Amino acid sequence: MRADAPGAGGVWPQPVLDLLAKGGDRPVFEHGARVLSAAQMSALIGRCAAGLRASGVRPGDGVELRLGVTPEAFAVIVAAFAVGACVSGGGGLAGHGGLVVDEARLAALVATPAPPDEPLIAAGRLDDMARVIHTSGSTGRPKGCAQTYAAMSAAWAAHPDRWPPAIRELASRLHRFLVFGSLSSQVMLEYATLSLAAGGTLVVADPPGFPDAIVRHRASASVITVGKLNKLVRGQRALPADLSSLQALMVSGSPLPAARLAEALDVLGPVVFHGYGQTETGMIAMLTPQEMRDSPAALFTVGHPPPGVDVSIRDGELYVRTPAQASLYLDDPAESADVFVDDGWVRTRDLAELDERGRLRLVGRARDVIIVQAQLVYAGAVERVLTAAPDVAEAYVVGRPDDDTGEAVHAFVVPARGCTPDAGILCAHVAAELGPAAAPQTVTFIDDVPVARSGKPDKSALSP
């Protein structure tokens, strides 16, 4: 569902530019011993914007970022949006040209003098692509989710008056928000923007390990994957660290079983926010710690979709419309047509239902994927690599919950006649072809695969 106008606050990222320009001495970014005020960050963004324009970047042009997590990296991300570019965190604009910003070019941009006393006004055009978010599935071909400036301008993160109730509760806890990984990723940029709008400070977690980064930086909030959450819970049971500063952990990337969620709340306290969303849509629903404590049944759901998010369940599959959703997959019309469907609906390919209180419960996936450490692993891709081995006749891949990785890949292999495949070699081959996340955690050799009534392989009957 595309926004038709930027609304109050102007085109993205004008709200961020405005709050920084008016923020004065308020600390907004902490990187080791360096602490930048809002005024300093505003000036840094202005220099980066001037540098981008001097490099020939105009509205609609591509800017591909290959940067670490620093104040300068954050500044150039905001600046690239401010000049109206199509921004990618790397790989999403392959074949489309544009300016590549690495650390060397960033230094030159930062050194560019900005026009004196001239406020920076966002130049994005509503129908232009604002960013392409590179999705790292194991299909052998990356997909780029393309989001327009209209969609980004309709997002809620920078606008306190648009915050849904769960986000309003979360925002009150983002005093010192840990940033790591890629500042241009959807999750990190969204929560960084929310933190700034809530009056918080972005704190670089370097290195980003838990619980050390929380303790070292006295962090109040962070994003965490299911595997890292489970590891943190185990660590706190065995040798508790001082997490008294922690107020919010936003769990993302993988399904979280209700029992594990309850355990995390019990060990860590009322700090766990359980969210559900996709790269294509942004946030679809979120549960607060209080909701989960008040209603044990809520642990089996991902909460109520907030106002502005429409949901439709069609033959068990969830379709959604969100204000800031993507429009298409770059250079992939067939997949775009399959996912971005009639009247602005996005097909999530997740199976869902609503409970008696209208909360969304996920019950499976229509697409055969496994989420390992927040990375999508397509079962079909792993099966194709395995069956390409000369000593393998058939291969079937399933995902199961895993304490360390959220979910794990498990393979079931029917050996070719007279052959004895080596499980280690098969796993190494998958890792080399599709990446380490796709490598099976276990390989089980079977004589044949169970068959469902339909006559098709019944992978639900396979158990590692």
UniProtKB/TrEMBL annotation:
GO molecular function: acid-thiol ligase activity
UniProt domain AMP-dependent synthetase/ligase: residue ranges: 120-329
InterPro entries per record: AMP-bd_C, AMP-bd_C_sf, AMP-binding_CS, AMP-dep_synth/lig_dom, ANL_N_sf, ATP-dep_AMP-bd_enzyme
Pfam families: AMP-binding (PF00501), AMP-binding_C (PF13193)
Domain AMP-binding enzyme C-terminal: 382-456
Membrane-spanning parts: none
Taxonomic superkingdom: Bacteria
Listed name of the protein: AMP-dependent synthetase
Species for this entry: Mangrovihabitans endophyticus
